[in-house]
Amino acid sequence: MLDDHPLLIPKPLSIDLIRKAHHPEHCAYLSRQTPDPIIQLDPDTWFSPHSMRAAHLAAGAVWDGVLDIIEERCKRVFCAVRPPGHHAEINSAMGFCLLNSVAISAINSLDLERIDRVAILDFDVHHGNGTVDICKDRPEILVCSSFQHPWYPNRLYDLNRPNIVNTPLRSGTQGDEFRKEIERTWFPAIEKHRPNLVFISAGFDAHQQDPLSEISLTEDDFYWITSEIARLSEQYSDGRVVSVLEGGYDLESLGNSCIAHLKALL
Ligand SMILES: [Zn+2]
Prior knowledge:
Layout lengths: L14 H4 L5 H9 L6 E2 L5 E2 L3 H20 L5 E4 L21 H9 L8 E5 L6 H7 L5 E8 L15 E6 L5 H19 L3 E6 L16 H18 L4 E5 L5 H15 L1
Parallel strand pairs: 3-8, 4-5, 4-7, 5-6, 7-8
Antiparallel strand pairs: 1-2
Helix pairs in contact: 3-4, 6-7, 7-8
Bound molecules: zinc ion.
């Protein structure tokens, strides 16, 4: 499947671009850490001597993907990165996340020619609290997040802003209900916002096999939502989509879900 679609090695993201999204104190806090050999920043977030480099490379991959698209080397990119980023708030690391890769690139992409409205579409089973925190006062960025509720992280899920669409899902939600809620809450917002670049926070931990959730999606549901996003992107952003891996903790279903996602992106 990937024969005609090269795998690229990213460059670490520069601190200047990171600071457009994160507070300078957040960058200083992370650089002050001296793990030997590993420390915990919070109950979920472990930090090793290699974590910062991994986070810079993950954020760099997303920005490289934006430039590849804007400079017309390709139309769609999937960033198979870890650590994830969507829980990292303006001034805090949490939930496995150090830097909010997708929010950093979304904000910086607004400085590029021809990009003045972007969307971040987050179907991870956990609410994208960090993305909401960073983008809440930036009307050029539409953030749509679907998530199990109540569930981790229980922050900012009820924030009321015209550019934030929160889509809570009850425990036990299956594909049909998920699709109806996405159609009802996301599609009208995307159609109204008309983004000229679309980001996906692609978390696959709402899969029925995943140990970190009580939502029962399947590979078909991930294929469906990706196809719908691709269809909307053809309408508004000339097909341009930057997709970024977030959660997904059952390795077999994560792999199969990524394949379904890639097939729909292609
Ligand atoms: Zn998650």
